[in-house]
Amino acid sequence: xxxGGGLRPQHTLACILDAQxxxxxxxxxxxxxxxxxxxxxxxxxxxxxxxxxxxxxxxTPLVEDVPFITTPDHVTVAMLELADVGAKxxxxxxxxxxxxxxxxxxxxxxxxxxxVEIVPELVTQSRDxxxxxxxxxxxRFEVQDLFATDLAPATLVTMYLLPxxxxxxxxxxxxxxxxxxxxxxxxDLGDWKPDRTLTLAVPQxxxxxxxTSRLHLWTVPxxxxxxxxxxxxxxxRIEQRYQVLQATLTQGTESHSFNGRVHGRQLQLLxxxxxxxxxxxxxxxxxxxxxxxxxxxxxxxWRLAAGGGCG
Length: 311
What we know:
The chain has two domains: 73-219, Rossmann fold (3-Layer(aba) Sandwich); 226-304, Avidin-like (Lipocalin). The protein has helices spanning 13-17, 24-27, 40-47, 73-82, 100-109, 120-132, 163-174; strands spanning 90-94, 112-117, 139-143, 156-159, 181-185, 196-201, 212-219, 226-229, 235-241, 244-251, 254-263, 266-271, 276-282, 285-291, 301-304. An eight-stranded antiparallel barrel has the order 8-9-10-11-12-13-14-15. The protein has a seven-stranded mixed β-sheet with strand order 3-2-1-4-5-7-6, covered by helices on one side. It has 311 residues and is of the alpha+beta class. It is 20% helix and 30% strand.
């Protein structure tokens, strides 16, 4: 896969995903990539219309001759800077290779971190690298299937994985705490559009024709879809698609429409007449923090409707 094209639908996924060594050497992807676990085949059989039941499982490596590619240091640093990593962050790197993402996060930015990787030799190398630069106490590296990794402690998840693996991970990423950041090298998350994309020149890149790397950043949005009710009969109905919002504010006989976004737990809505509403989501409570909308005041609390309406 030297062109970074991903696994093609015309190949039976069960055969592809059961190859013994679809690893960095098989994909030409950086140290942040991990070997695909065998049970991914069953995930794709269940989630797609591609024929898997009649697949013949073979252990034949697909492109074993593609070289191992090291992610340049400036790309590593840029991934962490894009996520605004700091000392309070805990970074989980999925497919951590030689550990450079987690080690750089700890040494340069003061963060703690976990790297998961299925190649034992690379985990040993990562631990040695961390001890050598003095960040062994703030970092941990484990031989582990990325799909078996508990992502809940992360404030930032980094990855350089195949597109199909990104999509298989997406439900777990979206279930993380609102405000958790995700940075992916080159590959996106399908129709969940990134908040930011940064393109870097990588003259030495040997994958594909373009000598660039694309870094994508997402912030996990709070789930605010539904009908929210405030004392006095006011209601706010929100329709949510990832971080993009459409909302209707109803007070008495008047209704106003808003478009907006949610960034972590912070909502920002903008009406056609220029009215704006800022609010903070906290589970089943939504609190207005700032507003210019007529009749709406800051500090107003909204609760998610238990039934079909605001009673």
